[in-house]
Design goal:
The complex is a heterodimer. Chain A is mainly beta. Chain A contains 7 helices and 35 strands. In chain A, the strands form 7 sheets. In chain A, strands 24, 25, 26, 28, 30, 31 and 33 form a 7-stranded mixed β-sheet that branches. In chain A, α4 packs across α5 and α5 packs across α6. Chain B has a 12-stranded antiparallel beta barrel. Chain B is 12% helix and 60% strand. Chain B is globular. By secondary structure, chain B is mainly beta. The chains are: A mainly beta, B mainly beta. Chains A and B meet through α3 and α5 of A and β4 and β9 of B.
Chain lengths: 668, 235
């Protein structure tokens, strides 16, 4: 048995490893992967309790993991968790690309368990999904996973049984590259974000089944309406609310389970316990952000520090410098930062999308000097765009009222024209060149390189570039949120593909339909639009390697993400997993999958076993992901080569949606 | 038969209240759930200072539920109540169709009904409960409507309307034909938690036409405005 468990001073340099001198100093280098839990010992860290205070790091290629029910104390209350090796989060496992790993998992729970290796390419029997890959790991049994690692980067692993992922069964996976790491940095940390509730997950689920907005404490009040009446007059305020009222929809529905019950953790520590790391100035730090929460989207920023995003979902992307990014459930992002800790301590700030709480840690030069807690952003308010409504097209009174709102806001919309003849052309406001030119000079802060690059690609392919599809204005009266002027979306990249037909159902299980869903790849998402910071969008993700030569898809599968929020029923095409046929593919098929989100929530869709090559508008830099966020009322497409035989799970990674919004993929 | 009917609610409520705390296979997509919801349990300053309640319990899954509901008041030892046992199924995204039996009781008499109705959320967020009741003597309509206005995330004002109408007079049961009675309420609750909220309020009870006559004969008031204080809770 070769496991190694080390707690090493995190300032140990990593430079030697990067230069390839690595192997003998492998274990020493690992110390720099260790989140600096050691610093906590000097403080009375509230809520650490019985679990191992030092985040263990296990180095391969053989591992012994024991799953047990262990008491923890995160908020001051002692409650039960399902942990691996008594650690919350589970130990960070370090693999190396090319080696064969052997992981023996022992189940000491009284119920079945499983471990799924998220984003890892492996034989389907090793994928860890009970009912698809195997029967699960029975109580008392040990299951041995063994496979050859074919990739490198930041990944994670978690239980795929019941709600164990909510009670602590998640950990990070750091896979070192076979060759020299193209990235340059001195220190390396995992920043694992998660959500913890002292209530049992069964209780959380039962509460939201009985009352869909049980945990939503950001609902509209009489005061909000009164404020609108004072600002815009009664009849305008009434008109504005009319559509939402008639549809019985709320613009405050961002998260099903919120900070009303969750404490958000960074590497297992609550904001009180405050994860920290000590770095001397002028060093480059690689932060591997992992969203291993059950239900929470986090908006991550480090005030005062720019982040260079270098990898997404484990795969290298061309570096892009941002102030902030949204990380959906199950996604990972690697960033490089260069904090000048002699000036200040920096807060790694991850606020929940609905602003009901945050996870926080500090990068500092002195473990007693922690960063101040930044203020959370205002509450995001959903808009017409998030409902997938095409306001310009819609000629009835409601859309007129929305347009008139825009005018009231003092925006000049006289240049706004609707060219109804071809239906999809729309002008955005102010500084805007002639529609005849492909090169639109937008005053938007969103980068537009990809759109232009796409146009060039299409011209090269001899495709029609005259149609430009612009997203709608979504004028929101709330002075915290802003309109979506000048946000562009890419053109459809592919000509019409033969469609794969799958069943669909109507009924009470469907709460709404997105009437005019748009791609919105350059939309940072509700709550991050035009907030004065450079926010990462999917349009910014460009594969580090060229992809022009990758095979083109030969058919397309379109699926609708559907659900009824009040009844808390989630499905795909109106059909929940238990009533659905599997999706069948031939080995080698290259398929384009398009999701249309007929709900008002972000859904992180995860396909096991094969890669999702995300169409972002640049045919030559298609980023490779395993988890793709489909924004409310939007659509998104990605390409998949079905190059792994077996049965694979395909589902929304929001834990309490997963049971319904799920399909089995069969590749034969 | 009557004793069985009387015992049924207690059995049902006991079952649902214990079941609602368990977690049988709750990690499945469509778990069997049960819930007891006491919308109103209040004392009022009306004549006789009655204790009144409005509660419902259900057990079931996404597509099929069984409801047991009870509304009534009790003062000076005498109780009147309207109870229903219904099968409920979603027919539209916001509406459930319900059908079953009703059992009304006054201190002297009782009657049973066949019931069909719809329960759900109407545009502008009005919560509606509508019933059509039929038996060999009479036919009736009962409508409950409620709206929730949030002053803060925990302080909620609920204006409400209850309305009854019947086709025939029934002196034994104290109901007259046409619009029989209405209750208009304004209750302000504070949610200490989602599942527990005390409230205070005002209500206006009005009896009409023949129903009003029956009430006068019994020595009751045909029009009353009163204060209420009570508890709203569910699990």
């Amino acid at each position: 048995m070769n496991t190694s468990h080390k707690s090493v001073h995190p300032q140990l340099g990593r430079r030697q490893f990067v230069k390839g001198v690595a192997l003998s100093t492998f274990t020493a280098a690992i110390g720099s992967h260790l989140p600096s839990a050691w610093a906590k010992e000097e403080f009375s860290a509230v809520g650490i309790g019985d679990i191992n205070p030092k985040q263990p790091v296990l180095i391969g290629p053989e591992f012994d993991l024991t799953i047990s029910e262990t008491p923890v104390n995160i908020t001051g209350a002692r409650v039960k968790a399902t942990l691996i090796n008594n650690s919350l989060p589970a130990p960070t496992l370090v693999w190396r690309e090319g080696e064969t790993v052997t992981i023996r998992v022992k189940n000491t729970l009284s119920v079945d368990t499983s471990i799924h290796w998220h984003g890892i390419i492996l034989p389907f029997q090793m994928d860890g999904v009970p009912g698809l890959s195997y029967d699960g790991i029975k109580p008392g049994e040990t299951f041995t996973y063994q496979f050859t690692v074919q990739q490198h980067g930041t990944y994670w692993y978690h239980s795929h049984s019941e709600f164990q992922e909510q009670t602590g069964l998640y950990g990070a996976l750091v896979i070192l590259p076979k060759k020299t790491d193209p990235l340059d940095y001195d220190h390396d940390f995992v920043i694992q974000l998660s959500d913890w509730s002292d209530s049992a997950p069964e209780t959380l689920y039962s509460n939201i089944k009985k009352m869909g907005d049980y945990y939503n404490y950001s609902q509209r009040t009489v005061g909000d309406f009164w404020h609108e009446v004072k600002t815009y007059g009664f009849s305008k305020a009434w008109e504005k609310r009319k559509m939402w009222n008639q549809m019985r929809m709320t613009d405050r529905d961002l998260s099903d389970v919120t900070g009303a019950t969750y404490t958000y953790l960074m590497n297992g520590l609550s904001p009180n316990a405050h994860w920290r790391t000590v770095i001397e100035s002028g060093k480059k730090v690689r932060l591997r952000f992992v969203n291993s929460s059950a239900m929470t989207f986090f908006d991550v920023r480090i005030p005062g520090l720019k982040m260079t995003v270098v990898a997404a979902d484990g795969n290298l992307v061309q570096p892009v410098e941002v102030d902030e990014f949204r990380i959906g459930v199950a996604e990972t992002y690697d960033v490089i930062v260069e904090p000048d800790t002699s000036k200040q301590a920096y807060a790694i700030f991850a606020q929940a999308i609905d602003r009901s709480g945050f996870a926080m840690g500090s990068i500092t030069s002195d473990p007693t000097q922690l960063a101040d807690t930044p203020e959370m952003d205002p509450l995001p308010i959903l808009s017409m765009t998030d409902m997938g409504m095409d306001m310009g097209m819609d000629m009835d009174s409601t859309s007129h009222s929305m347009n008139s709102d825009g005018e009231m806001e003092g925006m000049s919309h006289s240049s706004q024209q609707m060219d109804m003849s071809n239906g999809s052309q729309r002008m955005t406001s102010s500084d805007h060149n002639s529609m005849n030119e492909m090169k639109h000079d937008m005053s938007s802060m969103q980068q537009r390189d990809y759109g232009h690059a796409l146009a060039m690609e299409k011209r090269k392919m001899g495709m029609d570039v005259s149609k430009v599809d612009h997203s709608e204005h979504a004028h929101n009266m709330d002075n915290m949120n802003v309109n979506l002027d000048d946000i562009t979306i890419p053109m459809d990249m592919n000509p019409q593909l033969p469609q794969i037909k799958i069943p669909s159902a109507e009924g009470a299980q469907i709460g709404m339909r997105a009437m005019a869903p748009k791609y919105r790849l350059d939309d940072p998402g509700v709550g991050l639009r035009e907030n004065g910071r450079k926010v990462l969008t999917y349009a910014d993700l460009k594969n580090h390697f060229p992809t022009r030569h990758h095979p083109k898809p030969t058919k397309e599968l379109v699926m609708h993400l559907t659900g009824n929020m009040e009844r808390y029923m989630w499905s795909i095409n109106g059909i929940p997993f238990e009533d659905a046929d599997p999706l069948n593919f031939q080995y080698g098929d290259r398929v384009r999958i398009t999701f249309i989100n007929d709900t008002m929530m972000n859904h992180p869709m995860h396909l096991h076993g094969v890669w999702s090559d995300l169409e972002t508008g640049d045919e030559n830099h298609i980023p490779r992901k395993h988890t793709v966020i489909v924004q409310p009322g939007s659509k998104i497409s990605y390409r998949v080569t079905m190059d792994a035989k077996g049965d694979w799970a395909y589902h929304c990674h929001l834990l309490y949606h997963m049971m319904g919004m799920f399909r089995k993929v069969q590749i034969r | 038969m009557n004793t069985l009917i009387k015992k049924l609610p207690i059995v049902f409520l006991l079952f649902t209240s214990t079941y609602s705390h368990s977690s049988f296979a709750l990690s499945e997509y469509d778990p069997l759930l049960a819930s007891l919801r006491v919308n109103q349990l209040e004392k009022s300053t009306q004549q006789g200072e009655p204790l009144s309640w409005d509660a419902s319990a259900w057990i079931g899954k996404n597509w099929h539920k069984v409801y047991l509901t009870s509304e009534g008041e009790s003062s000076n030892g005498s109780t009147e109540s309207e109870n229903q046992l219904l099968y409920s199924t979603p027919v539209e995204r916001f509406w459930d169709f319900q059908a079953g039996l009703g059992y009304d009781e006054t201190p002297e008499n009782s009657q049973t009904w066949g019931i069909v109705g719809f329960q759900g959320l109407a545009p502008y967020f009005f919560e509606i409960n509508s019933r059509l009741l039929v038996n060999d003597k009479n036919a009736g309509v009962r409508l409950d409507a409620e709206y929730e206005a949030l002053f803060t995330q925990r302080l909620i004002l609920t204006p409400s309307l209850k309305l009854n109408a019947y086709t025939s007079d029934d002196k034994k049961m104290g109901i007259g034909s046409g619009l029989s009675s209405t209750e208009l309420g304004m209750r302000l609750r504070y949610e200490f938690s989602r599942k527990f909220a005390p409230y205070i309020g005002l209500k206006w009870n009005q009896a009409y036409a023949t129903t009003a006559d029956y009430k006068k004969e019994e020595g009751g008031k045909t029009s009353e405005t009163s204060l209420v204080a009570g508890l709203r809770f569910w699990f």
